[in-house]
Amino acid sequence: MVNNQELADTFNKFFSDVGIDLQKDIQSGETRPTHNFAHPPIFEFKEFDLLTVTNVIRELSPSSSCGTDGITSRLLKLVGPIIVLIIQHICNLSARAFQRSGKH
Asked: Fewer Cβ atoms within 10 A, N terminus or C terminus of the chain?
């Protein structure tokens, strides 16, 4: 069994040397940043296509629990094929409103 002092010394040595040891494994050379933070890319939502919305509804867990709206995933799966165009439209309206708000 190792005494407490030896254990403390071992941990201290490891954590003191870990940065130096990792630095040896990193290839030296000049690297350039891959992002231009002065001009970040503009984020834009893509429209939700019908296939994506259909697949999301299909992949819902058939749970009987519901959100604050009282709609269960079981109900969504049941009526999904009938209302998928409406859900797609609502999702796209929401995404457009969010994008216009500038809160992304």
From this structure: N
Determine whether 53 is exposed, middle or buried from the number of CB atoms within 10 Å of its CB (0-12, 13-18, 19+): buried
What pLDDT, in 10s, does the model give residues 9-62? 887 887 787 777 777 777 666 666 666 667 766 767 788 999 999 999 999 988
- Whether the Cβ atoms of residue 77 and residue 57 lie closer than 8 Å to each other: yes
Can you tell me the distance from the alpha carbon of 83 to that of 80, in angstroms, rounded to the nearest whole number?
Answer: 5
Structure letter (DSSP) for residue 59:
T
